[in-house]
């Protein structure tokens, strides 16, 4: 983990700065890879376009875009993405972002509920960039979002500290099977930074309970978590959602690895459960254990390769080291995987 310290800024607010900011040293993402990503997904307005989902934009994509711009040491691109994010999505009264922006509809924000992973990614990227590039306005914005998450999205139920996927519609009082969580919304690498922005024991509890839940969610013959999980009693697939290990959960092992969580038993169980042929992952029907959709894009396959790197030192195959963007989501995961290996495990390249 990177080392952090706090500093005081105007108004007496304790904010964070990195002792050794990554961006001041080198870019973890190659310039040509970032250029290809921008050309494919970054609109001139600063929005990240999800070309696999009707060309909408969302808070998750803006958060990922900010993080990738930071990892690419690209302050101008970061500011472009942040401008769209703060002017088009940060419209709620509680300090969180509306999650969905659709270019085909007016007004463009078609769902004002938040998505808590998007909020956390945005705050995390702002904190990293603010500390590395000495941008106190980024740090202040990060603090505001982190405080809003802690106040509205971090909740208690069944003796656990949980992250609601959205403020509306997921709580115990709103659903018969509530609370409902999405395990992939825990961005583990970001949680310690949230705790530096807004000190509270709740962040560590959120981290620990998220990991405990992941270890306990061994659903079906492949012992995998569902994308959407009811915690009304014991964890089970939530009502109204496909009972699957799907496109959400595929990123969980990558998040664990990027956070430096070296639980080999957990990582290898997830890897084995989602792998169907060779090292190719798939979405999985949890009830039968049968694959639903093979995930052949390098951005999905790199998740298995990153797990193999951190658990056994295996080198990434050439097929995932080459970046040729296709769809927004797997292309994003591929760059996050490549940046992580470049920074933390260059021996796997």
Automatic annotation (TrEMBL):
EC number(s) given by UniProt: 3.2.1.4
Gene3D superfamilies: 1.50.10.10
GO terms for MF: cellulase activity
Record flagged with keyword Ribosomal protein: no
Catalytically driven reaction(s): Endohydrolysis of (1->4)-beta-D-glucosidic linkages in cellulose, lichenin and cereal beta-D-glucans
Leader peptide range in chain numbering: 1-23
Record's protein name: cellulase
């Amino acid at each position: 983990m990177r080392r952090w310290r706090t500093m005081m800024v105007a108004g007496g607010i304790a904010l964070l700065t990195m002792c050794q900011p990554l961006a001041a040293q080198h870019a973890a993402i190659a310039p040509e890879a970032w250029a290809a990503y921008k050309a494919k997904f970054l609109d001139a307005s600063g929005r990240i376009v999800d070309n696999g989902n009707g060309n909408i934009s969302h808070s998750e994509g803006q958060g990922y875009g900010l993080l990738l711009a930071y990892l690419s040491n690209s302050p101008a691109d970061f500011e472009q993405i942040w401008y769209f994010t703060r002017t088009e999505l940060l419209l709620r009264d509680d300090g969180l972002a509306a999650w969905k922006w659709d270019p085909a509809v007016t007004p463009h924000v078609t769902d004002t509920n938040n998505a808590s992973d998007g909020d956390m990614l945005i705050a995390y990227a702002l904190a990293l960039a603010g500390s590395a590039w000495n941008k106190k306005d980024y740090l202040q914005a990060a603090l505001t979002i982190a405080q809003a998450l802690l106040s509205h999205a971090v909740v208690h139920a069944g003796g656990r500290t949980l992250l609601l996927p959205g403020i509306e519609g997921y709580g115990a009082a709103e659903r018969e099977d509530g609370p409902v969580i999405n395990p992939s919304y825990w961005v583990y690498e970001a949680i310690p930074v949230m705790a530096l922005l807004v000190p509270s024991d709740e962040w560590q509890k959120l981290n620990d309970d998220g990991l405990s839940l992941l270890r306990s969610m061994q659903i079906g013959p492949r012992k995998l978590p569902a994308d959407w999980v009811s915690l009304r009693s014991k964890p089970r697939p939530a009502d109204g959602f496909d009972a699957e290990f799907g496109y959400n959960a595929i990123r969980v092992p990558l998040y664990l690895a990027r956070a430096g969580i070296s639980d080999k038993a957990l990582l290898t169980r997830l890897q084995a459960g989602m792998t169907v042929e060779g090292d190719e992952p798939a979405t999985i029907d949890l009830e039968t254990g049968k694959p639903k959709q093979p995930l052949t894009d390098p951005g999905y396959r790199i998740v298995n390769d990153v797990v193999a790197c951190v658990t056994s030192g295996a080198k990434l195959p050439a097929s995932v080291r080459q970046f040729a963007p296709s769809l927004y989501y797997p292309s994003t995961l591929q760059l996050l995987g490549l940046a992580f290996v470049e920074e933390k495990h260059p021996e796997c390249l």
